[in-house]
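Holo model, zinc ion. Inputs:
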Amino acid sequence: MDFCTLAIESSCDETSASVLRNGTVLSNVISSQFFHKEYGGIVPELASRAHISTIDKIVKTAFIEAGITRSKISLVAATQGPGLIGSLLVGYNYAKGFAIGAGIPFAGINHIESHLFSCYIGKEEIEFPFIALVVSGGHTILFLVESYSEYKVLGSTQDDAAGEAFDKVAKMLGLEYPGGPLIDKLSEDGNENYHRFPSSQLKNIYDFSFSGIKTSVLYFLKKSFPGGKMSIPLNDISASFQKAIVGTLVEKTILAAKNYSVKSIAVSGGVSANSKLRSEFERYAENGYNIHFPEKKYSTDNAAMIGYTAYLKYRNTESNEIAGQILESAFARFEY
Ligand code: KG4
Ligand code: ZN
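Output:
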């Protein structure tokens, strides 16, 4: 029998709704709050207000695009955390209200976990165990994934997330928010060997630190271009900075795969849209590693990944009668 899920994601500055039939995405509607550009970063209060005014429209559009009616939905899922609390509350309560009204189960889904499983959407499922790098604007975490619910955190960032470093360096270069995609684009025509930005050495070899690279870009710009932003070679700085960040991400992930004798690697989260990160990992595919990335549209925040993760959890729960309860509390061990 068909099992349809409505999923909602509103953890940050995207309001998104998706309808899935079994594991197939029928619609994935995303409304991005571009007005934050004006402030150079996300303003939480404005983000939650925008979610409130958009969410009902986005859900309606998701049903129209999916071509099914509300009565066909068997499960409602929403991002439970982590994220901006005011933003989360909008999607979470909308979804819960929908589930209560329809008398169907509700699933609160962990955002990081859903990035991890975004690599599965429309593709073969990855055999356990595998190494997962989740790399976004808020998180940089390396996991050993042993089953659908067993993840060992090998390392994580000790300061800025990789996406955050991209965004902050972009701001120094006078680029708009979010800067990651712009740095990616500028790097295409840049010399990545123009300047070598340092990487940090940490006690735990799987931990990350990006605030040092960010600061060294700042000092390099101040020292080398006292005349201001106009004289900065944007392409070369972007490419050199991107090389440093990508180098660290790839090096630590491959080291984890080697040390844990794992051949499959899944890379997800907003920064997994980065072309240099994709091409550097692809090189390891030639050396016997199975490299998995989500389709680019599932790299950055979207509701399809929330719905897909909820579907996986539900499918793997033996008694569907209690699934609703289990799902809501299943991720308590992650901090919100
Ligand atoms: O996963 P995501 O949409 O939101 C969070 O959960 O944080 O990730 C957003 C982050 C932003 O920092 C953005 O600059 C970065 O992902 N990003 C990129 C690219 N596309 C998005 N960073 C580098 N290259 C890209 N192509
Ligand atoms: Zn995200």
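The longest helix spans residues 234-259. The CA atoms of residues 77 and 107 lie 5 Å apart.
Archived with the compound record.
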